[in-house]
Design brief:
Chain lengths: 477, 94
């Protein structure tokens, strides 16, 4: 599928197309350049002043990175030594060493886009000419098959339609990362297979990602495929959790992620497709499918995709990534085995203490009011609630310390059988006084729209060595 | 002959890319066999005889027909056949 780059002839080379007015303008001066080879992209009878070679498959244009026509290249011993594009009389005169070249033409005219970078065909050219080590098996559908139905029938989707991962689309997706397509970035559970950048790109295409999302998808998969996060367990558990992906850093804004209105919801391409790409990769490459290794009793809709960015610009707190050791200005993802979000309503609290008490009351209900320490939670504070803490000068550390202190509960109220509920902590803890969460068990984040005195809680799965710990990874290139 | 779209396999490639037909049953006795008339003229005569032969061999026969031979069977009809029959014979006569 690749091709050897054509060697340019020594002397001068010009690449043109008839459709370009600037090319038509320079046509008459081409005959004045000795040792000239002309390649024409569209019409083999153009230019008219000299004969040209038809670059019909655009191989010359593609391999020589022609973005603009006309382009003038000086070639010595088969190597390019100079080039200019469009018409800048002084450049053409300098490169050709013909001072009087085109003196009757305007001094400058911009060129036109090369056909080899036409958005409609650039992907096909990349697929045709790139010596790309894409090695995935191809699957050919018959012309009687609807490819969308066929992909669903093969079990490759999350129930929604997916974009067909053609070679052209996958190669375009791979332009979003500097990683080699065959780099193994993780061992994907549950089948424990080597997860390559190429396979991620295929699933990212299916999920609807743009190429610039690739580093985020790769980082998130690195973050979930390890013993600490325990993706196998997150899949296999009967609890309703999946990887919740929290994105930090300036790159979240560069790729247009949503950290504001409806940050957890629908409508933003980056948020929704990054999370979806991670889940499709686990499904298709890892082999983790509901009813097979995934044994969730109910699951939750976030298992299709649950990914958002922190509003670092608006936040009164240090970011989650900074808290977890990521240097300021770097992009990072933090993955958390979480269920769906639930709302904390407090429209009356005007002091940080009152609001903290409401948070604690709601956080106590995570999974069961009498179960403590064993589950972590994300607490996402909204701008309206955040203002209460900002005005009082509360830092992240202060808020976490207050949440912990105010959640302290006598063991006698938590042990099995207490408060006429069988569920609870073991009886030997009756005399202890316990916080709801272990140290580090509250992942404080800041996101949401500018109106609404609500915050949000995402409860986790069993934490620590028996379950899953949150994992943070820096996003690479 | 596949002439449709070609895509790259998103899976770990541990399963074959092409799907194979199921193995043939060793006996049709006791099985439910659907006869799908595609609604070409006189298809019913052909299928009547097939039904006789299958019934003689101990099969239970259910009859289905497509609304029109010009279009694929509707999803509901395919679903009905899939849930009620062990085997299906699609018959064309003209």
């Amino acid at each position: 599928m690749s091709s050897v780059a054509p060697v340019l002839p020594d002397g001068f080379v010009v690449i043109v197309k008839r459709e370009c007015a600037t090319c038509q303008m320079v046509d008459p001066v081409l005959k004045d350049i000795a040792g000239l080879t002309v390649y024409t992209q569209d019409d083999p009878t153009f230019p008219e002043s000299v004969s040209a070679i038809h670059d019909s498959d655009l191989a010359v244009s593609w391999h020589n990175n022609i973005d603009t026509v006309p382009t003038l290249i000086k070639v010595v011993n088969g190597k390019e030594v100079d080039r200019t594009f469009g018409w800048l009389a002084s450049d053409w005169q300098r490169i050709t060493e013909i001072p009087e070249l085109g003196t009757d033409l305007p001094a400058m005219r911009p060129g036109c886009g090369s056909m080899s970078v036409d958005p409609d065909i650039v992907d096909k050219l990349r697929a045709k000419f790139t010596d790309s080590p894409v090695i995935a098996r191809t699957v050919e559908f018959s012309d009687a098959e609807d490819e969308f139905e066929a992909m669903y029938a093969r079990g490759w989707t999350d129930g929604f339609p997916v974009i067909p991962p053609t070679r052209e689309r996958v190669l375009r997706m791979l332009t979003g990362t500097t990683r080699h397509p065959q780099d193994v970035i993780a061992i994907a559970p549950p089948d424990l297979v080597e997860l390559t950048v190429e396979k991620i790109a295929i699933n990212a295409v299916m999920a609807g990602c743009l190429p610039e999302y690739m580093p985020w998808v790769i980082a998130a998969l690195e973050a979930v495929c390890n013993d600490q996060f325990n993706m196998h367990g997150v899949l296999a558990t009967t609890m309703p959790v999946g990887p919740v992906i929290i994105c930090n850093g300036p790159g979240t804004r560069a790729i247009g992620m949503n950290s504001g209105i409806n940050a957890f919801g629908q409508g933003n391409r980056a948020n929704n497709t990054i999370g979806r790409a991670v889940q499709l990769t686990i499904r298709n490459v890892g082999g983790g499918r509901p009813g097979e290794v995934d044994r969730a009793t109910h699951g939750n809709p976030g298992k299709i995709s649950f990914c958002f960015a922190e509003d670092e610009v608006g936040s009164p707190f240090t970011s989650l990534a900074t808290e977890r050791g990521v240097p300021l200005g770097q992009n990072a993802v933090t993955v958390f085995a979480g269920e769906g979000p639930r709302c904390v309503v407090d429209q009356l609290a005007r002091t940080p203490e009152e609001l903290t008490n409401s948070f604690v009351a709601c956080l106590q209900t995570v999974h069961h009011p009498k179960l403590v320490i064993g589950f972590d939670a994300i607490l996402t504070i909204s701008p309206d609630h955040g203002r209460v803490f900002a005005e009082a000068g509360w830092s992240r550390e202060k808020l976490i310390a207050e949440l912990t202190e105010r959640s302290m509960t006598p063991g006698a109220d938590l042990v099995r059988g207490a408060r006429e509920m069988a569920e609870g902590i073991p009886p030997h803890l009756r005399d202890a006084t316990l916080p709801k969460f272990r140290p580090g068990g509250i992942l404080l984040t800041f996101a949401g729209g500018g109106a609404g005195l609500f915050s949000s809680i995402v409860a986790g799965w069993a934490n620590g060595a028996i379950g899953s710990d949150p994992v943070t990874r820096v996003v690479g290139s | 002959m596949a002439t449709g779209i070609t895509i790259l396999d998103p899976t770990n490639e541990s399963k074959p890319a092409t799907r194979h037909t199921l193995s043939r049953p060793t006996s049709i006795s006791g099985l439910t066999i659907g006869l799908l008339d595609i609604s070409k003229p006189r298809g019913n005569l052909f299928l009547n005889r097939i039904e006789e032969l299958l019934t003689e061999r101990g099969a239970k026969v259910l009859r289905f027909s497509k609304p029109t031979f010009t279009k694929p069977a509707p999803v509901d009809l395919r679903q009905e056949i899939a849930t009620q029959c062990n085997l299906v014979i699609e018959a064309l006569a003209d």
